[in-house]
Specification:
7 helices, 173 residues, two-stranded antiparallel ribbon, 2 strands, mainly alpha, Four Helix Bundle (Hemerythrin (Met), subunit A)
């Protein structure tokens, strides 16, 4: 393994472990609950992360030859994935594991020779593949925060303390 990638690999592993830990003991009612009609549910967030993880793995494995080159190809992938929390979480874990394995098998130099995410969305600019290795952890962490917020709101709207930091002195209730 390339020592230059060790930190980003550890960051991805750490983020994934804590993300998954925070989904333990999720009640079935929480999965599709939303605080507002237009808000995301945990189920839709997990599906989104699963779609993105497949895209990231393909990008790392194939670079610019990723099968997801435009909005239409990403939409076909998204449409092909059912809204099934358990299945998508299991698939997300498998894809995240493949992503980390792909990082372990490559070098920073190899990643810097490829570009990914080139023209998937209109106006998108090519990004170095090495950025993808960092972006995956940041992307997961941002949705992890959403899920923690949804889980806290679900509990507090039912009169229970929040699951995460139920007695936070810096944010009094």
């Amino acid at each position: 393994m390339d020592e230059a990638l060790q930190l980003v690999i550890e960051m991805n592993e750490w983020t994934w472990k804590r993300f998954k830990d925070d989904l333990q003991d999720i009640a079935p009612e929480e999965i599709d609950w939303r605080p507002l009609p237009q808000a995301n549910t945990i189920n839709t967030i997990i599906k989104h992360l699963r779609v993105e993880a497949e895209w990231y793995v393909a990008s790392l494995d194939h670079g610019e030859q990723s099968p997801y080159q435009d909005t239409a190809s990403v939409q076909r992938l998204t449409d092909a994935i059912p809204l099934d929390f358990e299945r998508n979480l299991k698939e997300l874990e498998a894809l995240y594991t493949l992503f980390i394995e792909a990082l372990r098998k490559t070098t920073l130099n190899d990643l810097q020779q490829h570009t990914v995410l080139a023209q998937v969305f209109p106006g998108g600019a090519p990004h170095p593949a090495s950025l993808l290795s960092f972006r995956q952890a940041v992307h997961l962490a941002s949705h992890w925060g959403q899920i923690r917020t949804i889980r806290n709101l679900y509990r507090t709207t039912r009169g229970a303390p929040g699951r995460f930091f139920p007695h936070n002195p810096t944010f009094p209730a």
